[in-house]
C-alpha cells in the first residue's frame, strides 16, 4: 500500500477569504461614498432650491409689494415712514436687503414708506404739560418721539421745555417730535437744554458746557465786518467783540447730553 502524501502549499487556502473580505469592504466603501455624494447633492438642491432673489420694490405701493413678496415666499415689514417730495404717499422709498440679494424663503425684507410731501404744521408744545403736548401732536397727525427729562426748578414737573423739530418747522424728515420735559429736582438728568451762547466769550461758553460734562469741538473763527455807523435816528450797531460766540450747533433750545459735541463759531 502506497503512502498517501498530501502536499500543503502555504497561503493557498488562507488568501481566498482575505481577498473576499477586501472585495466586500471595497464595495461597502463605494456604497457609502455614493450615498454621501447623493446626500450632498440633495442638500445642495434643497438649500438652493429654497433661495430666491429679492425683487426691486422701490416705487411700488405697499399692497403691490406685499403681493410680490408673498409670491416669492418672503415677508415684508414696513419699519419706517418718511416725508418725501419725490415719491408719492403709500409707495416704497427704500428697502433692505437691496434688490438682487439671494435670501432663503421666509426671509424678512424691511421697507420704508413715503408719506408724500410734508403738509402738517408742527405745533408749538413748549410750555404745555406733557400729556397736552402729546394730544396736540397726535391731532396734527404727528407721533411722539423720544421723551427726555431734565430737572428744572423754574418749571413745573411735566412741562415741555423744548422740542425737536421746533414749532412750525418745514422740511422735516419723519412725522415724530422729540420732547424735553421738566423733571423733579432730585431726579438725575438724562439731558440738558442747550443755552443761547450768542455774544458769550468763547471761554465762558466752553466752561459752562464742561461744567455739566459736555464737550466742545475746536472753535471755528470767522472775520466779522465792522458795523456801519447809524444814520438818522437809528442807533449805531455795537461792534462784535473778538472772541465772542457768533453761532452754535446744536441750536439754542435743543436737547444735549454727554454724547453731544457742541460746535461754536467765534469772531476773530
TrEMBL record:
The chain crosses the membrane at residues 21-47. Keywords: Membrane, Transmembrane, Transmembrane helix. PROSITE patterns: PASTA. Residues 49-113, 116-183, 188-268 form the PASTA domain. Residues 228-268 are annotated as: Disordered. The keyword Iron-sulfur does not apply. This is PASTA domain protein. The lineage of its organism: Bacteria, Pseudomonadati, Acidobacteriota, Terriglobia, Terriglobales.
Amino acid at each position: 500500500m502506497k503512502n498517501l502524501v498530501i502536499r500543503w502549499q502555504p497561503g493557498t487556502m488562507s488568501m481566498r477569504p482575505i481577498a473576499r473580505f477586501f472585495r466586500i469592504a471595497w464595495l461597502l466603501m463605494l456604497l457609502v461614498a455614493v450615498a454621501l455624494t447623493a446626500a450632498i447633492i440633495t442638500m445642495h438642491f434643497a438649500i438652493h432650491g429654497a433661495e430666491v432673489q429679492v425683487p426691486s420694490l422701490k416705487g411700488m405701493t405697499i399692497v403691490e409689494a406685499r403681493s410680490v413678496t408673498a409670491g416669492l415666499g418672503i415677508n415684508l415689514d414696513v419699519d419706517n415712514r418718511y416725508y418725501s417730495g419725490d415719491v408719492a404717499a403709500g409707495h416704497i422709498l427704500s428697502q433692505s436687503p437691496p434688490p438682487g440679494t439671494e435670501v432663503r424663503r421666509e426671509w424678512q425684507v424691511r421697507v420704508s414708506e413715503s408719506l408724500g410731501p410734508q403738509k402738517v404744521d408742527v405745533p408749538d408744545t413748549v410750555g404745555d404739560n406733557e400729556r397736552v403736548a402729546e394730544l396736540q401732536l397726535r391731532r396734527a397727525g404727528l407721533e411722539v418721539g423720544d421723551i427726555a427729562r431734565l430737572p428744572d426748578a423754574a418749571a413745573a414737573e411735566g412741562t415741555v421745555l423744548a422740542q425737536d423739530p421746533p414749532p412750525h418747522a418745514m422740511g422735516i424728515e419723519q412725522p415724530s417730535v422729540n420732547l424735553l420735559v421738566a423733571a423733579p429736582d432730585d431726579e438725575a438728568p438724562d439731558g440738558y437744554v442747550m443755552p443761547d451762547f450768542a455774544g458769550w466769550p468763547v471761554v465762558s461758553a466752553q466752561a459752562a458746557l464742561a461744567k455739566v460734562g459736555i464737550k466742545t469741538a475746536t472753535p471755528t473763527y470767522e472775520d466779522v465786518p465792522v458795523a456801519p455807523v447809524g444814520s438818522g435816528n437809528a442807533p449805531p450797531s455795537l461792534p462784535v467783540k473778538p472772541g465772542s460766540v457768533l453761532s452754535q450747533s446744536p441750536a439754542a433750545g435743543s436737547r444735549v447730553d454727554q454724547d453731544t459735541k457742541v460746535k461754536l463759531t467765534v469772531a476773530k
